[in-house]
Amino acid sequence: MDDDAAMGEVFLGREAMADGLSRHELRRWYRPLFRGAYIQKRATPTLTDRAVGAWLSSDRRGIIAGVAASALHGAAWVDDTERIEILVDDRRRQSGLIIRMDRVADDEVTSAAGLPATTLARTAFDLGRHQKRSAAIARLDALMRAAPFSADEVTMLMQRYGPVRGVRQLRELLPLVDPGAASPKESWLRLLLIDNGFPIPETQIPVLDGYVPFAFLDMGWRHIHLAVEYDGDQHRTDRPQYVKDMRRHPKIAKRGWEVVRVIAEDKESEILAAAYEAWLRRGGAEIDKMARFTRTFAPVRSFGRNRVA
């Protein structure tokens, strides 16, 4: 096998040896990604490479699912080192793989990046159940932003499979999915506000200069002109964008908006206190403070149905 041609190519070792590659050459020039699946030693595997390796390792019987499937569908914020979830009838564990033996119907499988993967609806169904709550909403937001899925189709899957593990969380999160979230931290911040009694905020709110938007606020409530924004690392990684953002702040304030700015170092209690004070100052209705500040009690959550603690 030619080295240049092999760079980044993932293959089954037994098939390459059947085509003439010696065992010595396999061990010298290639390294395993998963059981039986190899890649050139100098290559840095992408998530797609690793998904291919996982599929080949399943003897081409597995279905890529979960976070990896969301990435194959175009969702952002998935690292190349993310563990690959695969639906396969095989209990053997492998490092770097999450083996799931969940049921999957034929109409829940599609092709993504040339691999068998769960459909958008089935991917969302799995993300909302298998991820932790804040991670789940971030993954669902990212999938909806990249490749909009049908909430009705996800609901049909919930009805199809009944009270499976994690379905209650999925049922709570599904009405909150918002493609306007531009980062996992924005998804986390939005969920923090909702879980602590704030009305569901609108995302990507345009601020106009005449009829032309000059800024889009991360999230907020138009009726009281209050926004909450997560300030990421752009002050270090993208200085021009940071300077641009700083210069737009006075223009936003002149149009009657108050903005609560959140940074990574802020504690949840500090974020909620600042948001609540601004909410009241802008004329917002009272919010249950017990749910916001008492860590002994679970936050009050409202999802368009009866509240649950």
Explain what the structure shows.
The N terminus and C terminus are likely disordered. The chain has 3 domains: about 45 residues, no CATH class; about 120 residues, no CATH class; about 110 residues, Endonuclease, Chain A (3-Layer(aba) Sandwich), CATH 3.40.960. Helix 6 packs antiparallel against helix 7. It is built from 14 helices and 12 strands. Strand 10 and strand 11 form a beta hairpin. The strands form 4 sheets. The protein has a 4-stranded mixed sheet, sandwiched between helices. A 3-stranded antiparallel sheet has the order 1-3-2. It has a 3-stranded mixed sheet with strand order 4-5-6. It is of the alpha+beta class.
Count up the domains.
3
* Overall pLDDT level: 89
What integer value in Å does the Rg equal? 23 Å
Structural class, by secondary structure, is: alpha+beta
Largest sheet: 4 strands, mixed
The number of helical runs is 14
Helix content class: 40-55%
